[in-house]
Amino acid sequence: MRVSKRASGAIAVGAAFALVASGCSSDSESNEGGNSADGAITIHGVQPENPLVPANTTETGGGKVVDWMWTGLVEYPNDGSAPRNAVAESIETNDSKVFTIKIKQDTKFHDGTVVKAKNFVDAWNWAAYSPNGVQGASFFADIQGFDDVNKADPDGEGPQQAPEPTTDKMSGLKVVDDWTFEVTLEAPTAVWPTKLGYSAYVPLPDAFFTQKPEDFGRKPIGNGPVKFVSWEDNVLIKLTRFDDYTLRDKMKIKDVDVKLYQDESAAYSDLVSGNLDWVEQVPVSALAGDKWKQDLGDRAITTTTPITGIIAFPIYDERYQDVRLRKAVSLSINRQEIVDKIFFGTRPPATSWANPLAPGTVDGNCTVCTYNPEEAKKLYAEAGGFEGEMVFYYNADSSHKEWMEAVAQQVKTTLGVEARAEGMPTFAVFRQAVNAKQMKGPYRAAWQQDYPDVENWINPLYVTGGSSNDGGYSNPQVDALAKDAGAQADLAASHAKFAEAVKLIDADVPALPIYYYANQAGHSEKIKKLEVTAVGELDITSVEL
């Protein structure tokens, strides 16, 4: 998961609700002059898991392409400050429950059709409708009538099937006119407008509803500053400037080629040799002795980002259903040693369930993040040990081998269990197995903040049926507290409720926070100016050559 990144204009909200309009926006100069106007760059990417349908794209490979191709109601400034209006002209409410949203008139999709209020409403209804099987459906759970369009499977992957919804339209969505729609939530929700920069909430063109979603996703039509040209699997996604884009974050260059790598080290070699223009994370091998800084000089960039490296458990596998075993594994891991020896001190060890950069986070609330081998051995014995080999899985097309092997070795040494790490060839293959619930051991995960609030670190990951609750964790008490937290009209009250939920999550150990990201990125000599987003990715609208 990830965050949209472009900043454009100050958000205008009414009466009882307001967001602070602060922070920098991307440069709004025209595309005239210099080498930028007709210039092109080639940047690092990986094969997306799915066709590029925004609400069904919940991973970073496809997610960053979606973020570039679409613009939502609000956007998140690169400096991490409060969201600001993009397609939205205004978002008004008197009670944090009923919102009137006016959009800017005559912005366009890449096929030339005009973006209207119904394009948001139709897209949200489609994404929320459970028979469509959209991964991001749960992001619409705040809206009145969601339970009517989204019916849960009563026994997970069991023989029973989810009942058919009684309707395909949420009662809380109403088109007022071409440029206005009204949203009614189930309860007052202070954080809701903050979410609207996430890609699940972007509009879809009329053309989407005339074809199969997977066909649209192979030739997507967005409304952002770049439009789709072509996609060759595992090789290249080509994008080009959308010249009819009317918002402030226009492209200064013309073409962007996203080269899809299967090896992060190969991408870095291309960067150093001048055959690639951007890598958002250099490989671990380049961190030793600050080699990457020597290689890149003033083209080396370090950013602090709201991303956490995690190991998730396949709780649907009965071998991992004993909380004592999961806790024993966590307490066996010396996080400080891993960040010192593997990442050479460039990434802090995780001490909380949500990243400290997320508003509402209580730092230090991960009690199982402490290295405690004696307690780990005791809990492991109480759990009755572990039968067979414990395999820790990761995607081999990025730099995860070293730290995953270190984790497996620490668990093996502390608990005496046969443990090892195993790479799966590509991120797409890896994610397909995760989504199919076919993982046979703990596996590498990461959470890249979608929107700036602690809620984003709880609901998608640990609430039953959450969009990225891939391991199948479920605790009705956590669900109830999270729902109560979301229904608070005051952010401080909401954060307090989420803190209560986190205490239960900490006791259940559904996953293992390991480290916080600090991105080490680099660009080519061709790029003269750029901005990095709040999550460490390249803001392509800022690039000047």
UniProtKB/TrEMBL annotation:
Residues 1-18 form the signal peptide. The lineage of its organism: Bacteria, Bacillati, Actinomycetota, Actinomycetes, Micromonosporales. PANTHER family: ABC TRANSPORTER SUBSTRATE-BINDING PROTEIN (PTHR30290:SF83), PERIPLASMIC BINDING COMPONENT OF ABC TRANSPORTER (PTHR30290). Pfam families: SBP_bac_5 (PF00496). Residues 83-468 form the Solute-binding protein family domain. The keyword Signal applies. Residues 149-170 are annotated as: Disordered. It comes from the Bacteria. It comes from Micromonospora fluostatini. SUPFAM superfamilies: Periplasmic binding protein-like II (SSF53850). InterPro entries: Peptide/Ni-bd (IPR030678), SBP_5 (IPR039424), SBP_5_dom (IPR000914). Transmembrane segments: none annotated. This is ABC transporter substrate-binding protein. Keywords: Signal.
